[in-house]
Amino acid sequence: MNGRPLDVLIVEDEVLLAAELEFLLDEVGYHTVGHAMSSDEAMAMANDLHPDLALVDVHLRDGPTGVEVARRIHDDCGGVALFMTANLKRLPDDFAGACGVIGKPYSSHGVRTALSYLSACLRDGRAPGQPPIGLELAPAYATRWGVPAMPRAV
Amino acid sequence: MTDIFQSERAPEPPTVEHDLSGPFAAAIRATRMAMIVTDPHQADNPIIFANDAFLKLTGYPHDEVIGRNCRFLQGPDTDPVQADRVREAIAKGEDAVVDILNYRKDGSSFWNALHVSPVRDKAGEVAYFFASQLDVSDSKRLASERDDVRDRLEAAVADRTHELTLALDQKTALLHEVDHRVKNNLQLISSLLLLQNRRVTDPAVKASLRGMLERVSAIATVHRRLFQSDDVERFDVSAFVRDLVSDMVGSARRDDVKVQLDLERVDVAAAKAAPLALVISELFSNALRHAFPIGHSGEIFVGITRTDDDLRIEIADNGVGLENSASSGGFGLTIVQLLCQQLKARSETTPAEPGTRVVVHMPVDGGHH
């Protein structure tokens, strides 16, 4: 990656998933600034740490509050959220302002390629092509990054 | 009945002849059908004749009927619209056929199937009106009861439909919840294997963990695919292979190994998805890991075709061949053998000059997609 590593906030209530994800992020050159397990923690960390990217599960310790977390990170903190969830059907059509979703169960390779693709999008303001398998972009971001619209898989 | 009566009357219309005493009039007096004749030439079109059946039906004596307009049969719940229809037909000299609620002398009501017809003289002018009355209260009550029964049935069906819709919604929500949990648990298992793999240093243990991770990933890919489609009963083998191959080549970081796919869309029963996915994953992994030692580039072909009830899966590489590979054979091949038994499939491994070709035949049911 070019320039400074992206600051990433992990919002996930399963600690083992979060621990492995942090290893993976470190391997591919991201900087994990924090790990939140509830919506309150997530908002506090988002406000304090200003991450470039927040990886957000829909289901958190205080319920299915991840959608609202993504919306507030987008609306209030000006950050970019990416859902990582098995709960694709719970996502609103506008992705609550998040840039897309990686469906669980994901593979390490899937996360690596998705994040490297998103880094290019965030850096250049343009997508390097169609998103890789396992990553679905929100319609608003697909338009912004010049990706031809794909029908939703779910 | 009225028509038959009229046709009988036609050759000798008694009312026109002012003859109320002949044999024909005697028949009218005696019939069980209530009948009256009115005279529109007198003021307010009074009744000038009423038979016994009419008197019996209405409960009025003869002298309280003759000379009156027949509207005295109407009462509080008589529909004015029906009464108007009779009045207008008489004014125009036309027939009127209505069901109207009438009242007896004792105040009880009955449904009257009223038929009013003008009777014309030889010049074609209306001389009289002839009216027949039939008590249809019973059939009206039956119809009303039938309507009630139908309404109750419709309400019951609507209630049941509502209950079933709710039950289906609950079942769908439950399915989504279970799907969600299965996916999260698969992710958890993957994370456990990955975390442990980070800890251990022994290459043999690392290889074992990596093999298990691949198998879990294959099952995870099945579950991602299975609930993406509308039909959770069927599993699209080719779509799965596309996802699996892309992930395994990417994970192995073998950009020097090209993959060629020739995939026909074939669906199998969802129950066979996981074992079949494991077979394909083992065979592809074998080709990827063992046919091409580091530095040895090449190509792997994966073909899926269907002929009648036979699913054919071919995985061929142009690598170093079986006898030269470092494959331990071991656990991966055992898995393939066992699962082929389970799937009633057979696999053949042959040298491909260069490389190795494995072909799996599996019986499939259902129509072509």
Spatial strand order of the main sheet of chain A:
2-1-3-4-5-6
What is the mean pLDDT of chain B?
88
Q: How much helix is in the residues of chain A?
A: 25-40%
Quickly give the CATH architecture of the largest domain in chain B. Answer: 2-Layer Sandwich
How much of the sequence lies in strands of chain A comes to: 15-25%
User: How would you name the CATH homologous superfamily of chain A?
Assistant: Response regulator
The CATH class label of the largest domain in chain B is Alpha Beta
Low-pLDDT stretches of chain B: 1-17
Rg of Cα set of chain B: 46 Å
Please tally the β strands of chain A and state the result.
Answer: 6
Principal-axis shape of chain B: rod-shaped
Description:
The complex is a heterodimer of chains A (154) and B (369). Chain A has 154 residues and is α/β, with parallel strands linked by helices. In chain A, 37% of the residues lie in helices and 18% in strands. Chain A has a 6-stranded mixed sheet, with helices on both faces. In chain A, helix 2 (39-49) runs parallel beside helix 3 (66-75). The longest helix of chain A is centred in the C-terminal third of the chain and has 17 residues, at 108-124. Chain A is globular and about 35 Å long. The mean pLDDT of chain A is 91. With 369 residues, chain B is α+β, with helices and mostly antiparallel strands. Chain B has 2 domains: 2-135, Beta-Lactamase, CATH 3.30.450.20; 233-363, 2-Layer Sandwich (Heat Shock Protein 90). Helix content of chain B is 46%, strand content 23%. Chain B is built from 9 helices and 12 strands. Chain B is rod-shaped. The interface between A and B is medium-sized, with 26 and 25 residues.
